[in-house]
Design goal:
It contains ten helices and four strands, in the order ααββααααβααβαα. The chain is mainly alpha-helical. The strands form two sheets. It has a two-stranded antiparallel sheet with strand order 1-2. Helix 2 runs antiparallel to helix 5 and helix 8 crosses helix 9.
Amino acid sequence: MKYQNGLKRVVDIIGAIFLLVLFFPLALLISILIKIDSKGPIFADVPERIGENGKKFKMYKFRSMINNAHYALRTDPRFKKLYEEYKKSSYKLLKDPRVTLVGKFIRRHSIDEIPQLLNVLKGEMSLVGPRAYYPDELENQLSKYPHTKKLVSSVLSVKPGITGLWQVTGRSEINFDKRIMIDASYVKNMCFLNDIKIIFLTPVIMISGRGAV
């Protein structure tokens, strides 16, 4: 727990500031392209996520879908079948008609997640950690995989991360039960060296786009 409450936070702050400076030109370019490509804000209007100890927070992401995509998926009759498919496939869609042209590129290479560095500075997220789930997603998946309840409790005991063990091993290609096992394993073995390994593996995954949707 010493690493989690001490050095890990120092690494998060220094790393987030460094990456914000490094990615600023790219972030500026992406912001312009998003505005040119489709109507709507630069940042995605997404529901709150569940963070450390079950506390909800607003995650910052570049908008990669049509405006109000998450609300439309859950309420628009046109997306009823898509929403059912979304829930059955562990809240991931291989072919999502809501994704914009620019969105396809930034999602494939995880560029849409750059703004989450602001969440790290605010102390809501870590550079490395488990996935941050939507409340309804977690409820649905726990109903589908009740045997994962203890694993979920473990995962929610720490801050979610921009990247993590499951992202560099399987990304969206694995279902919730396997994903939560990987994240729980990360929490159990959390240490500085493991975080550094994941951080250095992340750019490879971003460039290749492997497992992204």
